[in-house]
Amino acid sequence: MHRPRISSLRTLGSRNRVGFSRTSRFSRIALSLFLMAPLLIPVNFVLINPGEGTPLFPKMLKTTSSQTYPVDGQMFLLSIWVTNPETAVLGFQVLRCWAEPTCVVNPRKVIYPKQTNDDEELALGAKEMKQSQSSALASTKQLFAKKYPDVDLRGVTDNSLKVSLKNTGGPSGGLIFALGLTELLSPENLLNGRKIAATGTISKSGKVGPIGGVQEKIVAARFAGVQLLFIARENCDELPAEVTGLKVIAVSTLEEAYLALKNSGNSNYRGVQGCTNLSA
């Protein structure tokens, strides 16, 4: 008489175990989907990565209306990669970016105005790039009036300045364009076989202004084998605690950059100069 009870109890126990196992498996699947969902949906962030160093000579920067001189060395325009305002950035991409030392995550509103789109951003970048070239030429002419008064640049105009660069925009190429024009148009050999880069806006009077992504551009400069990099002094606060592998000089004007380029040809110094907050 007791066996059916025992059998019944075992059957009940077996059902309980089966029921518990099915519920647990379902719960695990549901929990996994719940945890994975944020990784697969778009989030309101922008990803920034180091771009590349694009050489100015002989193809990117040219002028067709004045005598130019042979270039002994190379100058590089530095860029960064930024996701477009309409690009869907997924949660797992943000996590992957956080795990990479050279990738930066920023809220979209910090980089782009509200309601902007890809076409508007590309148009703005192209306009800023064109303005930076015009300002670079004006500041170069001002520098030449002081340093090379015998060199006639009256025939060099915005229309005669040729910059061949696709899919890149923004104002941060102003300083390197001005230094590139100075190298092309002056009788002096300023490069002396070196690889030089610069990043910063420039005004028509020659004032150098700050840009975004300076740390990513240092990485791009290092990848390009750059020996000397000029940045805006206003970007000093964004520099890492230590810069290795190249020399960085912070400047406030085109003339400061020109003099440093002219007078640092025999220096093997690596690190940062011109930033008081870094005791350099």
Counted by DSSP, the helix tally is: 7
CATH architecture of the largest domain: 2-Layer Sandwich
Cα separation of the termini: 95 Å
Q: Order of strands side by side in the largest beta sheet?
A: 6-2-4-8-11-12-13
Mean pLDDT: 86
Q: Poorly predicted ranges (pLDDT <50, ≥5 residues)?
A: 1-21
Order of helices and strands: HEEEEEHEHHEHEEEHEEHE
CATH topology of the largest domain: Ribosomal Protein S5, domain 2
| Shape field | elongated
The first-level CATH class name of the largest domain: Alpha Beta
Radius of gyration in whole Å, from Cα?
Answer: 28 Å
Strand content: 15-25%
What share of residues is helical?
Answer: 25-40%
Helix-strand makeup class: alpha/beta
Largest sheet, if any?
7 strands, mixed
The total strand number stands at 13
| Integer count of domains | 2
Task: Give a verbal description of the structure.
- By secondary structure, the protein is α/β, with parallel strands linked by helices.
- It folds into 2 domains: 3-39; 43-278, Ribosomal Protein S5, domain 2, CATH 3.30.230.
- It contains 7 helices and 13 strands.
- The chain has helices at 3-36, 91-99, 108-111, 118-147, 174-185, 214-223, 254-263; strands spanning 42-43, 45-55, 61-63, 74-82, 89-90, 104-107, 161-163, 195-199, 201-202, 208-209, 228-232, 247-251, 271-273.
- The strands form 4 sheets. It has a 7-stranded mixed beta sheet with strand order 6-2-4-8-11-12-13. The chain has a two-stranded antiparallel ribbon with strand order 1-5. The protein has a two-stranded antiparallel ribbon with strand order 3-7.
- Helix 4 (118-147) runs parallel beside helix 5.
- The chain is elongated, with a radius of gyration of 28 Å.
- It starts with a helix and ends in a 7-residue tail after the last strand.
- Mean pLDDT is 86; it is low at 1-21.
